[in-house]
Amino acid sequence: MTSGRRTPEGNRIVGGVPNSAHLSGSAVDYDGPDLPALLAEARKLPGVRKAFIHKGHVHTEGDGWNVPYYGRNGTKGLKR
Ligand SMILES: [Zn+2]
Predict the structure, then answer these.
(1) 55 CA distance to ligand 1 centroid (A)?
(2) Considering the entire predicted model, what is its pTM?
(3) 33 CA distance to ligand 1 middle (Å)
(4) Which residues surround ligand 1, an ion (CB under 5 A)?
(5) CA–CA separation, 28 vs 64, rounded Å?
(6) How remote is the CA of residue 80 from the centroid of ligand 1, in Å?
(7) pLDDT digits over 40-67, tens only?
(8) 27 CA to middle of ligand 1, Å?
(9) Are 25 and 66 in contact (CB under 8 A)?
(10) In whole angstroms, what is the distance from residue 79 CA to residue 43 CA?
(11) Residues 8 and 71: beta-carbon distance below 8 Å
(12) CB of 22 within 8 A of CB of 47?
């Protein structure tokens, strides 16, 4: 897992689209040496709605997902 929920600031920094599902915590990115194999596994995730290869990673979105803030810049500007 390389990216989960993101703050708006973190999403901007990583170049996420403004209405990214990462903002609402319903998207997770995965990275690995074999993206097609990863994609095949990602499509089996419970509740998965979308899974596709994008910019060198597998992007997934699911219904009812509520993933934690995660990722290199995902927590940027987060108030704790
Ligand atoms: Zn993504």
Answers:
(1) 9
(2) 0.90
(3) 17
(4) 27, 29, 59
(5) 13
(6) 23
(7) 999 999 999 999 999 899 999 999 999 9
(8) 6
(9) yes
(10) 33
(11) no
(12) no
DSSP string, 1-13: --B-B--HHHHHH
Instruction: Please list, in sequence order, all residues whose beta carbon lies within 8 angstroms of the beta carbon of residue 69, skipping any fewer than 6 positions away.
Output: 4, 5, 6, 7, 75, 78
pLDDT band per the 50, 70, 90 thresholds, residue 78:
confident
Q: How big is the chain, counted in residues?
A: 80
Structure tokens at 19: 């209405």
Half-sphere exposure of 58 (CA within 13 A, CB side): 20
Per DSSP, what are the bridge partners of residue 3?
29, 71
Phi, psi (5° rounding) for residue 9? Answer: -65, -45
Separation between Cα atoms, residue 56 and residue 48, nearest integer Å: 20
